[in-house]
Each structure stands twice: as C-alpha cells, then as structure tokens.
C-alpha cells in the first residue's frame, strides 16, 4: 500500500477517521489526537501519511498528518511490550519533539504520565530508543530542557532491565559507583560484585 492517502475528510470520531478517495471508495483509519486536532473541516481535502498493519485476524490502517509522527509510531512499537494502541496513546499525549526530549533526558517519571505507560515500559523506551531519539525528530538534535540522568541513575535503569528489583538495582549501583564512572563502568562493577 502507498504510504500516503489523499482524499476528502468525511467523518472524524476520535480516534477514527473516514477519508473518501473517489469513486465512492473510502478508508477508515485510526489516528492519534495530534493528527485529529490539526485536521481541516469535514468536506475538505486532506493528505495523510499511512501505516498499514496486518495481523493474523485483522487489518488496520493508521493515518498521520506529519511524517515524524508516523516514524515515531513505527519506532516506538519496536520496544518490547508496546503495540499500536500504546503508540497512538504516546502520540496523543506528547509531541514527537517532546517525546524525543524525554527519552534523551531519561525522564522516566514524565514518560509514565502518558496513559498506558508504566515505569518498566518507560525504562525500556529510554534504554531502547535513546540512541535513536534525534532521528525521531528528523535528525535534529534535541536539547534536553532538564538535566540528563546521572550515570548512577542510568545504571539503575539498566540493572532493572536485566531483571533486578528496583531496590536491589539501586543498592548495586550505589555500591559500585565511584567518582568519574560512567554508566557502563558502574554496571560492569555492579555485575562483577553480584557474581561474587
């Protein structure tokens, strides 16, 4: 299927849209609120970037006004435990730029304020998407507005991703950290200590 859809906006009932493409043919799409807010009036022409998803028992079509939204929708679903529903919730809760800023800053607390995102999912997003956060905004570097997480906090998140309980991960990172250590050094020392 083509990655764009152009037609007349016939109906919108969030999160659903109905676009007539001509000849009596219409497509029903799901869209995030970020797209729905910026749509033209009913009866006007609209062009949407689309994402087609086929599962064993269903076919879904998603629509986005901006390519960055579609890219974020696709990228965030690569994180374990995140599907289309949560990806739409993310786009409905924050802008692409704000999401990239939160991921780069490692702001797990702010990410958990997005409906459907728990602490573990937020931590996975930070770990798995941090390196790609600039690409989410089209390659622009996003300057964090809040201070980035310190190496010890990053190590705690990584240890939790490895299966350690939060209190245990904090203790391990605290005991292993030394002045000037980066997150990787703290993690290595914490894991060596755990094996003794």
TrEMBL record:
* Biological source species: Pseudoxanthomonas winnipegensis
- Please identify the protein, giving its name as recorded: Holliday junction branch migration complex subunit RuvA
Domain note: Has three domains with a flexible linker between the domains II and III and assumes an 'L' shape. Domain III is highly mobile and contacts RuvB.
> Which superkingdom is the protein from?
Bacteria
InterPro entries cross-referenced by the UniProt entry: DNA_helicase_Holl-junc_RuvA_I, Hlx-hairpin-Hlx_DNA-bd_motif, NA-bd_OB-fold, RuvA, RuvA_2-like, RuvA_C, RuvA_C_sf
Coiled coil (residue ranges):
none
So what does this one do? Answer: The RuvA-RuvB-RuvC complex processes Holliday junction (HJ) DNA during genetic recombination and DNA repair, while the RuvA-RuvB complex plays an important role in the rescue of blocked DNA replication forks via replication fork reversal (RFR). RuvA specifically binds to HJ cruciform DNA, conferring on it an open structure. The RuvB hexamer acts as an ATP-dependent pump, pulling dsDNA into and through the RuvAB complex. HJ branch migration allows RuvC to scan DNA until it finds its consensus sequence, where it cleaves and resolves the cruciform DNA.
| MF annotations from Gene Ontology | ATP binding; four-way junction DNA binding; four-way junction helicase activity
Alphabetically sorted, this entry's keywords are: Cytoplasm, DNA damage, DNA recombination, DNA repair, DNA-binding
- What Gene3D superfamilies does its record include? 5' to 3' exonuclease, C-terminal subdomain, DNA helicase RuvA subunit, C-terminal domain, Nucleic acid-binding proteins
Gene Ontology CC entries for this record: cytoplasm; Holliday junction helicase complex; Holliday junction resolvase complex
Domain III as annotated region, ranges: 149-196
Q: Name one Pfam family in it.
A: RuvA_N
Protein's GO biological process: DNA recombination; DNA repair
Give the location in the cell: Cytoplasm
Q: Which family does it belong to?
A: Belongs to the RuvA family.
Q: Which residues form the Helix-hairpin-helix DNA-binding motif class domain?
A: 74-93, 109-128
Query: What assembly does the database describe for this protein?
Result: Homotetramer. Forms an RuvA(8)-RuvB(12)-Holliday junction (HJ) complex. HJ DNA is sandwiched between 2 RuvA tetramers; dsDNA enters through RuvA and exits via RuvB. An RuvB hexamer assembles on each DNA strand where it exits the tetramer. Each RuvB hexamer is contacted by two RuvA subunits (via domain III) on 2 adjacent RuvB subunits; this complex drives branch migration. In the full resolvosome a probable DNA-RuvA(4)-RuvB(12)-RuvC(2) complex forms which resolves the HJ.
């Amino acid at each position: 299927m083509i990655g764009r859809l152009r037609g007349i906006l016939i109906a919108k009932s969030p999160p659903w849209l109905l676009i007539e493409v001509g000849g009596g043919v219409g497509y029903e799409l799901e869209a995030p609120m970020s797209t729905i807010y910026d749509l033209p009036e009913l009866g006007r022409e609209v062009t949407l970037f689309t994402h087609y998803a086929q599962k064993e028992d269903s076919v879904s079509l998603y629509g986005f006004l901006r390519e960055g939204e579609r890219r974020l929708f696709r990228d965030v679903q690569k994180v374990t435990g995140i599907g289309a529903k949560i990806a739409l919730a993310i786009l409905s809760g924050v802008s692409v730029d704000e999401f990239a800023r939160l991921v780069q800053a490692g702001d797990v607390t702010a990410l958990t304020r997005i409906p459907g995102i728990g602490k573990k999912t937020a931590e996975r997003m930070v770990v798995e998407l941090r390196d790609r956060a600039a690409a989410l905004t089209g390659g622009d570097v996003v300057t964090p507005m809040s201070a980035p997480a310190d190496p010890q906090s990053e190590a705690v998140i990584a240890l939790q991703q490895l299966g350690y309980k939060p209190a245990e991960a904090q203790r391990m990172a605290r005991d292993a950290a030394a002045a000037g250590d980066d997150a990787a050094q703290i993690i290595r020392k914490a894991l060596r200590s755990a094996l003794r």
